[in-house]
Specification:
It holds the Pfam family RADX. The chain is mainly β and 306 residues long. It has 2 domains: 131 residues, OB fold (Dihydrolipoamide Acetyltransferase, E2P) (Beta Barrel), CATH 2.40.50.140; 157 residues, OB fold (Dihydrolipoamide Acetyltransferase, E2P). It is built from 6 helices and 16 strands. The strands form 2 sheets. Strands 1, 2, 3, 4, 5, 6, 7 and 8 form an 8-stranded mixed sheet that branches. The protein has a 5-stranded mixed barrel with strand order 9-11-12-14-13.
């Protein structure tokens, strides 16, 4: 069928009601958002953002309501979609934006693609990777992996991806989303090493929309975290430690979930695997810890410093 592209959509969307089908690849995926309220009667008040791209650039795509339980888990980073009968709307101005792996990619930020169950009922097809043709010009998924030795020099709020061997995982903890609120964030602390530094990555992992992975992070698993944010504590505390926290678009993968993921081709991921092959598993197991209370950031050594 006759296809359009994202660049053409941005130029012509105001003058059209019906749009030609789109062929795009998913580059980023947000956590699933529940926006239900007691006074509003909605069956499936869910929403999820994706960043999708073709040869012309990248644009946000929003999956609404009952399409979320049907499609969210099938739409992975790297998945190629054929979309028909979608809607176009002006972008929501306050949403978060992931940092693209390819800094040269053009971003169309004024509009977003809306996938709805009606008005119009969107037609979604997933194209298997082996059927994707090079002449379609779809971009590859690119990452921004860093090593532990590079971390200390990165600025506050820098976006990056990491891979490491888990040496510590804490118990799940809860923090109130707001004062006096009944809603909580669920998170846990983890340490991961990659052989480039004596220090581990310190990771604050909030529960994303991957409960099966979040609950199974154990010592000795290979952990990949994407779209993490660098937190450089701005205090004068000499014992300050830089750590990483998840963002709205973070994805977490552990041993058993890596097969077929686009990051397996990344050079730094391959270097980490080579390093792991040179390590003694028995030696690493002796250094691992699980559970317990993990106060972080650490208070100073003495009351005087405090």
């Amino acid at each position: 069928s006759k296809l359009t592209n994202l660049g053409h959509l941005e130029m012509t969307w105001r003058s059209r009601v019906h749009f030609h089908p789109l062929l795009v690849r998913i580059l980023h995926k947000s956590r699933l958002r529940y926006y239900g309220k007691p006074e509003k009667k909605m069956d499936m008040p869910y929403q999820a953002y994706f960043e999708v791209a073709d040869g012309s650039g990248m644009m946000s795509m929003v999956l609404w309501n009952s399409l979320c339980p049907e499609w969210y888990h099938s739409m992975k980073v790297g998945t190629v979609l054929l979309l028909a009968k979608y809607a176009i709307k002006t972008s929501y101005p306050f949403k978060t934006h992931p940092t693209p792996g390819d800094s040269q990619m053009k971003r169309f930020a004024t509009i977003e693609i809306c996938l709805n169950v009606r008005d119009p009922p969107t037609e979604i097809s997933i194209i298997p990777e082996e059927m994707v043709k090079p002449e379609w010009g779809l971009p590859e998924v690119k990452y921004r992996f860093i090593t532990r030795s590079e971390l200390d020099d990165l600025p506050h709020n820098h976006s990056c991806d990491v891979i490491g061997l888990v040496t510590f995982v804490g118990r799940a903890e809860r923090a109130r989303k707001r004062e006096q609120s009944e809603d909580f964030w669920l998170y846990r602390w983890a340490h991961a090493i990659d052989g480039t530094s004596d220090q581990p990555f310190i990771l604050e992992l909030f529960a994303t929309s991957q409960p099966d992975v979040f609950e199974r992070i154990h010592p000795m698993t290979y952990l990949v975290c994407t779209q993490m944010r660098v937190i450089q504590s701005l205090t004068e505390n000499p014992s300050r430690t830089v750590y990483l926290t998840t963002s709205n678009e973070s994805q977490i993968f552990i041993t058993g979930w890596h097969k077929g993921q686009p990051y397996t081709k990344d050079a730094k991921v391959k270097n980490f695997i080579q390093w792991m092959k040179s390590q003694s598993e028995a030696d690493q197991i002796k250094k691992t810890i699980i559970g317990g209370y993990y106060p972080f950031p650490r208070p100073p050594d003495s009351f005087l410093k405090y």
